[in-house]
Every structure is written in C-alpha cells, then in structure tokens.
Amino acid sequence: MFPQAPSAVVMIRPHHFLPNEETRADNSFQSQAQQFDGGVSQLAYEQVTRAAEQLEQAGVRVHLFEDLGTDTPDSVFPNNWFSTHAGGQIAIYPMYAKNRRRERRTDIIELLKREYRVQDVIDYSGLEYDNLFLEGTGAMVLDHIERVAYTARSKRTDSHVLERFCSHFNFEPMVFEALSEGGVPVYHTNVLLCVGSDYALGGFDMIVDPARRAEIKHRLQLAGKKLIALSEAQINAFCGNALELSASEGRVLALSQTAYDALTAEQIAVLESCVTLLPLEVSAIELAGGSVRCMLAGVHLSRR
C-alpha cells in the first residue's frame, strides 16, 4: 500500500550485546566508555524483545532472528548488510569493519525466499577485497517513491559501489558531505536523514555545501514532503534515525524514546499530522551508535 513504508521487518535479538570496538574510531554516536557490564547485554536483549512485541502489536510483521554468538557485536543492526526491494530484489553489501562481515546470514536470505517473492539476489560483498564499501540503508537513505538515494560521504560509502547499486536498482544518487560541528564526517546517512512518504526529518545544517543543501531540501519539497529541520543536538539524540512502516491502522514512524523526548512539541505536531509515532525504548542499543532505524531491515517484497 505504501512503497516507502514496508509492512514487515527483520530484527536480530543479540544474546551477548556489546558496542563494537572496531567501529568506535569513526562512529561519533557510539559510547566511548571502555567497559560495559553484563547488565547492558541483558538490557539490550530485553529492549529488542519489547520493541519487536510493540511493532507486532501495531500490526507490523516482525521476523525476529537470534544471535547467540559473541563475535558479532553489531548484529542488532541488520539494515547495513542487506536490503530488499519491490520487484523481488535483495542486495547484500560490503562492510567496512571486518567483524561486521560475519553478520551476513544465509538463513535470513533463505527465509525471505520462502516467505516472499524473490527474483534476484545481487551480492556486492566481494568488493570488500578491494576495500570498497557501501553499508546498505545505513550508508544510503532511499526514497522508494522518487527513486533517490541520499548518501553522505564517509569511509563506509564508496562512490563506485553506490553508482553500481543505483544502476542495478534504478535509483538516482544524491551525494553530499555532512560534518558535525567538530568537523567529523557523519558515519551513516541514516542518522542524519529520515525520508517518509510525505515528510522528511533531517539535520540539513550539517550538510557542508550550501548549494547542495538547498538542492536536497528543494528535491524533497518537490516530492511533496514536509521538511522538519533537526538541530545537531537532536541528530545526536537519534531523531533522524527513524523508519516509517505500514501497520494495521495506517503508517507509523518507529523511533526511539530518546529521539521522541528530544523532539519539540511543534515537530511532533507536524509529524502526527502525517503519521502515528511509535516510540521504542532502546537506550542500551544506542550505546553502540545506532538506534531504531538501524535495528530494522525493512521488507519491501511481495508475500507469497
């Protein structure tokens, strides 16, 4: 019903969650604490469990997979290693951190093939051997209606892989540079920008080039989207890391409780004129530098 808002998601429930040491250097959203006790791991398990329950109660189909391993600390963020697309296509992506490459799971792809109509799986992961990376819908924020791939430059996004993806999947790349006030590149586009069916939340002031910033805002407005500008403080509270989904009573915007609490009353009113807000408590997961959007791999496939 809503091309931008999938009605099903894949989630991973970690049994030994810890923030990833390999990604700490270039992920400024990640907690810099050196030690995490077992309570964080247990809390992460409980929060993923509860988030999946809340999504299902809202009418979103959740495919919940278990991660029993101890060598995949970021497995709770599956949207980085695969994405699904209308017409029956799946993309598998090359990952920057070596320990994140172990997150790819054939059982997830096989379930998607059983439950949905899958025509083609395009695997870009071999490009890792050439140090070429594109971390899925973390690196790209896709407008499935207008066919635009909004992409911030970073170590996790190679322009050649992006061009290849856009050619295969019929998206137009819109690449830009985005920096924090401290001059640090934004590591993933999906912490900066959320594109819904008729609205977009973005840290637009973090886009370095004023002309490119204006072009992106104009492009979103031409597509009929209400723009909600987020401050850098709100970006750091994961207000941009949200995902629109199709639920029983229409569209919902899944976001973290942290993000919801950081929005202004005016911003909430604008959003609620478009979509129902569904805050999820994922504070333990956010220690790893990602939030609700990163936790949800949307399923844009037709069910069998």
TrEMBL record:
Sorted alphabetically, which Pfam families does this protein's record hold? DDAH_eukar (PF19420)
**Does the keyword Isomerase belong to this entry?**
no
Q: Which UniProt keywords apply?
A: Transferase
**Domain of life, source organism:** Bacteria
Offer an example of a GO molecular function term for this protein.
Answer: transferase activity
Coiled-coil residue spans: none
InterPro entries, per the entry: Amdntrnsf_FN0238 (IPR014541)
PANTHER family linked: AMIDINOTRANSFERASE
Q: What is this protein called?
A: Amidinotransferase
